[in-house]
Automatic annotation (TrEMBL):
Species lineage: Bacteria, Bacillati, Bacillota, Clostridia, Lachnospirales
InterPro entries: Alkaline_phosphatase_core_sf, Sulfatase, Sulfatase_CS, Sulfatase_N
UniProt keyword Calcium, yes or no: yes
Keyword field contains Metal-binding: yes
Organism: Vallitalea pronyensis
Keywords, sorted A to Z: Calcium, Hydrolase, Metal-binding
Protein name as annotated: Sulfatase-like hydrolase/transferase
Pfam families in UniProt: Sulfatase
GO MF annotations, alphabetized: arylsulfatase activity; metal ion binding
Length: 492
């Protein structure tokens, strides 16, 4: 019997047009990811659930939105009821291993070096483990971009990407005759862009990823985006460093893909990134409280030999929230009720092509310190053509992504678009209700442009939305009767 195997490869801070296969104007020096795209299906409208490392990963690996699992900012941990895909699979006797950046334990950037429940402890290797292998001097060097240019620079073997690749290839070789789910999570091309010198050379003295929205009039943007832009001073960040490291991590992924071809040729391969980087678009750098495609529209590729047609493209919205249901479907495990995403397998096999929407959120960038705009509650939806953004504390945005792909013309007040605007607004409100968004309330409905908004009421929709309990949990009891809850969403 053919083994069931999945390898999920992810990078950090890799926006879609940083792959040549997505960028028709520029050579991004990503031959290996370009090759992967040619062997399967490339998604054009795949979205992160929140454009910040930790919250993005929380959705990707639990199948629940950050506002549901409690990880609404970096340096926060899941709530006690949240389960990862590793736990689901290990309980079904599927060998699961996670190699690379985790960023989900509620600690600092590097993690605590401790393997969580559900994953193979022999292969666990977060960034804390990587640093613990070094002396203090090398730890410091590993966090400085300048290290790449000291003397002859650094060797490949010094990098986190190389060490993750080596561990992943060891796992694939030793488990070639077993069912498994393997995550290989690179920190690269995230700052400090640590790579051998040669990978920066193609990008020396050249302009890359230039867009008209880098020089647009910022006065039409929400106030918090204008404040953010002022802090950036009109700069575009270190494009050379980011793209050089981007080329380097592609090289490491090439080694990994070679190992998969040799020892797991029929495995399903899923590739994505947690979020992108603004690089000066809309006047801002990095990622944070905005929904622009530069940071939310992530690369996403699925390949599965003899199953997914080669060199195909999916143009409908997809989301990281769909990854856990997809993995469960692949291993024939029933999807729990509380997961709101959908398996992508029918879509990639050409058995389903219904209209879809992707939802994106933002609450806070970081919980441990100030900066990054502080508390900025935002909820957004993308359909096959439009994007609506509700920025609760500043101004809202509506973009026609077909006519205005760089999101330079805000249509929120344009009478011609009132119908689609209100329809998308209703979709956001329904999504917030269905996913038990703890930040929901009448203020999301009563936007200045929503003429038919209902009157503000203290009870809002008058509903109670209890958390779904798993079969292994104590059943929640109703406050009024003391009896077990049978309807999880009902009038109070």
């Amino acid at each position: 019997m053919e083994k069931k195997q999945i390898v999920l490869i992810m990078t950090d801070t890799q926006r879609k047009d940083m792959l040549s296969v997505y960028n028709k104007q520029e050579d991004m020096h990503t031959p290996n990811l370009d090759k992967l795209a040619k062997t399967g299906k490339r998604f054009e409208k795949a979205y992160t659930c929140q454009p910040v490392c930790g919250p993005a990963r929380s959705a990707l690996f639990t199948g629940t939105y950050p506002h549901t699992n409690g990880m609404v900012a970096n340096s926060m941990a899941f709530n006690g009821h949240t389960r990862t895909i590793g736990q689901h699979l290990s309980e079904a006797a599927i060998h699961s291993a996670y190699i690379g950046k985790w960023h989900l334990d509620g600690g600092d950037y590097f993690g605590d070096g401790v393997c969580p429940d559900g994953w193979d402890a022999d292969y666990w290797y977060d960034m804390c483990n990587y640093l613990e292998e070094m002396n203090d001097d090398d730890r410091y060097r590993s966090r400085q971009f300048g290290t790449c240019f000291e003397g002859e620079g650094i060797q490949e073997t010094f990098t986190y990407a190389h060490k993750c690749t080596e561990k992943a290839m060891d796992f694939i070789k030793k488990n070639k005759d077993k069912d498994y789910f393997l995550v290989v999570s690179y920190d690269e091309p995230h700052h400090p862009f640590l790579s051998p010198q040669g990978y920066f050379e193609p990008f020396e003295g050249k302009s890359y990823l230039e867009k008209a929205n880098q020089d647009m009039d910022l006065s039409s943007l929400p106030e918090h985006v204008q404040v953010w832009a002022k802090s950036c001073g009109g700069g575009k960040g270190d494009v050379r460093g980011l793209l050089g490291c981007n080329a380097y991590v592609d090289y490491e992924i090439g080694h990994l893909m070679g190992c998969i071809e040799d020892h797991a040729e029929h495995a399903m391969v899923i590739y994505t990134s947690d979020h992108g980087d603004s690089l000066g678009s809309h006047g801002i750098n990095s990622k944070g409280p905005a929904m622009y495609d530069e940071i939310t529209n992530i690369p996403f590729i699925m390949a599965w030999k003899d199953n997914i047609p080669e060199e195909t493209i999916d143009d409908l919205p997809a989301s990281h929230i769909d990854v856990v249901p997809t993995v469960l479907d692949y291993f024939d495990i029933e999807k729990p009720l509380y997961l709101t995403g959908s398996s992508l397998i029918p879509r990639v096999l050409g058995k389903e092509s219904k209209d879809t929407k992707a939802f994106i959120e933002f609450t806070r960038y970081e919980i441990d310190h100030d900066g990054f705009g502080g508390y900025q509650p935002i909820r957004s939806v993308v359909d096959k053509r439009f994007k609506l953004v509700i920025s609760l504390m500043t101004q809202d945005e509506l973009y026609d992504m077909e006519k205005d792909p760089q999101e330079m013309h805000n249509l929120i007040g344009d009478p011609q678009y009132h119908g689609i605007r209100n329809e998308l607004h209703d979709a956001i409100l329904q999504w917030m209700d269905e996913t038990r968004d703890p930040y929901r309330g009448y203020y999301w409905e009563r936007r200045p442009w929503r003429e038919d908004a209902p009157e503000a009421t203290w009870d809002h929709h008058g509903m109670t939305r209890q958390r779904y309990t798993r079969t292994d949990e104590v059943r929640q009891l109703d406050y009024s009767t003391g009896l077990a809850i049978t309807e999880f969403t009902r009038p109070k």
